[in-house]
Amino acid sequence: MNIRMKCAYYLLPLALCLFLFACGGSGPENSGSGSTSSGTGTIAFDLEWQHSSQGSIFPDESRSARQATVRASSDCCVDYGISTVSAKIFNSSNVQIGSGDWPCSAHQGNLTSVPVGSNHWIRLEGTVSGGGVNWRAEKTGITVVAGSSANAGTITMTYIGSDTTPPTVTPTNPTSGSINVPVATAVSATFSEPMAPTSINPTTFTLKKGPTSVIGTVAYDVFAKKAIFIPSSNLDYSTTYTVTLTTAVTDMSGINMTAIAQWSFTTEASPTSIPFPPTGLSATAGNGQVSIAWNNIASATSYNIYWSTNTGVTKTTGTMISNVSSPYVQTGLANGITYYYVVTAVNNYGESAESSQVSGAPGSVSNPPTGVTASPGNGQVIIAWNSVTGAIAYNIYWSTTTGLTKATGTKISSVTSPYIHTGLTNGTTYYYVVTAVNSYGEGPESSQVSAAPGTAPPPPTGIIASPAIGQMTIGWYSATGATSYNIYWSTTSGVTKTSGTKISNVTSPYVQTGLTIGRTYYYVVTAVNSYGESPESSQVSAVPGSGPNLTPYQPPGASDKIVITKTPCAGNPNMVDQTPFYSSDTLYVAFWVINNGSALSTYEAPLTIYLDGQIVCTNLIGLLPVGGVANCCLCCSFGPLTLGTHSIRIKVDTGNGDWTYNEYTKTITVN
After folding, report:
1. Do 410 and 437 belong to one domain?
2. Does residue 339 contact residue 290 with C-beta atoms inside 8 Å?
């Protein structure tokens, strides 16, 4: 056996409709198998999980007001540590006719090979890792037809934990000792904790007039924890009735009530006149329908509705809908048309005057959202869509099978765009549709989108930070699967993605400029692909500085930054040109370089000498302190030269290692 499950975490108000488990004359306590034919069928249902920490539930609120849900992950089995779900199937004679268990992680499926019959019921138990049964549920009134699948709807698994506390009950309507109770009243009582629905039935929950039992139907509202006795006809006037709940009533842990709960109430006196008009009228419009509700009136035995598409409706001008109860839903209406309503109360003396008028205009549900996208991440998918005019909420339906609809998908209620679906399996494709909800209901599905979560790349390695004047060059090795990289930097050690300043979508090497000289900068790098961002690389740091600054220099006593002589220097360069220059001369170049920056200590700065634009000599300058001067008088010579003017240029590396230069050009005339 397997099972399809939906996991929802609820905030108040809950996003669930009311499930009333009928236990009346055909309930599981009655004898007979109720078999419809020979053979077997299947039972399909969804599961939802309700934890006691969610607090009280407000069942009287409308469904549209109870749409807010919060999902911690997509897998309730992981969230609650549930390892196994088991089922026992009983027929209407309470004889077990089947059983099975399966891993909680089996999220979709059916109970198969179930003997046919009517009024079957199911008891479910959820076992947590370690063996304790911490979850229980029951569902009654299931009919299985041979070869068919019976949809049992949604079954709510209730957290019981290590419950040892007996349940208690409080009269809800009418309360103990109430008088003048309307004869059309249904009797209800609220329990202190979730109860086993099959234990609340016409045998354990009775209503009596003296020794005579009242015929009616028993129901249990699992979310309100409320038992309801609905008489099959109006109660008698001026009569005292006694309500009894026996100790055979049990909670979901199988713990009985410790004492019989019993209370009485007295109905209203027989009316002596027609009733007053109903009060508290409301009309709630939907898609092609209007729901009309009102307060019950003492001495009324039934109600009539009169409606029209013209205002000022009366019993004379309106169309009558007789013998109705509140709330009444009028269907088959035209959207965009306003419908007007009044209600009257009826008893043996006649019909009341009309109530005040209310109106409602049915309308269409929202169009499906457009622009739906699904972006995969590491174990997650981000679903986004365009807003829909008039929408008050959105629902997502998802599945691991394509062709997704509202009927086949798992619902995530009342979400906003973008929504992050977490706890997913990398490598599995997930399919999504989105619907818009307005005051008239839920619209159709959007177009389907899909995405397959995957793994983000590993962090980059080989990170280096090379300082220069007011800047930093950051480099790294490529990471497998990366499509881009981010740098995070700070002036405080221990930089992370959270604490650092982000530089997005960069490539190696990246040059960060505008830095403060002398301050330490710290860096980490991350790799990015369509699935997300890697963890941070190892941290590197460096300090931008002013750097060396080598430049041609004219020392005191020298005639120029470049001096041309006809004889080589003897240890020190000549300080002035030895003119005139003739075409037959061999000429020697002398020049000076000064360091106007920080010391040149770990780098040899290249220099080049050009004659008429052509390189004639090269050399290196190293170990030059701040303010130090280097001279060259034997490094270059040339000649004889042709008659006319010639240019001599020296080009010296600044010494920063960033391929910047300073240069100087001198022109001479050869005779």
Report:
1. yes
2. yes
Kindly give, in sequence order, each residue whose CB lies less than 8 Å from that of residue 185, ignoring residues fewer than 6 positions away. Answer: 173, 174, 235, 267, 296
Of 405, 408, 367, residue with least CA distance to 386: 367
| pLDDT given for residue 533 in this prediction | 92
**What would the DSSP string read from start to end of 235-289?**
PPTT-EEEEEE-TT-BBTTSPBPSS-EEEEEEBPPPPSSPPPPP-S-EEEEETTE
Q: Give the list of residues 6+ apart from residue 151 with CB closer than 8 angstroms, or none.
A: 44, 45
Say what the pTM is. 0.45
Q: In which residue ranges of the chain is pLDDT below 70?
A: 1-38, 48-80, 105-110, 129-131, 545-547, 570-572, 597, 634, 656-658
Are 98 and 122 members of one domain? yes
Which of 159, 192, 209 marks a domain boundary? 159
Count of beta carbons in the 10 Å neighbourhood of residue 185: 20
Helix (H, G, I), strand (E, B) or coil at 577: coil
Q: What is the CA radius of gyration of the chain?
A: 44
Cα distance between residue 428 and residue 572, in whole Å:
79
Q: Which residue has the tokens 């050869």?
A: 670
145 & 29 share domain: yes
For residues 475 and 523, give the distance between their C-alpha atoms in angstroms, rounded to a whole number.
Answer: 10
Residue at a domain's end among 387, 417, 451 = 451
User: So what's the pLDDT on residue 345?
Assistant: 95
Domain count of the chain?
A: 6
pLDDT in tens, 332-386: 999 999 999 999 999 989 999 999 999 999 988 889 999 999 999 888 999 999 9
Q: Which residues contact 670 (CB under 8 A, 6 or more apart)?
A: 581, 582, 583, 585, 641, 642, 643, 644, 645, 646
- Which residue range forms the structural domain that includes residue 472? 464-542
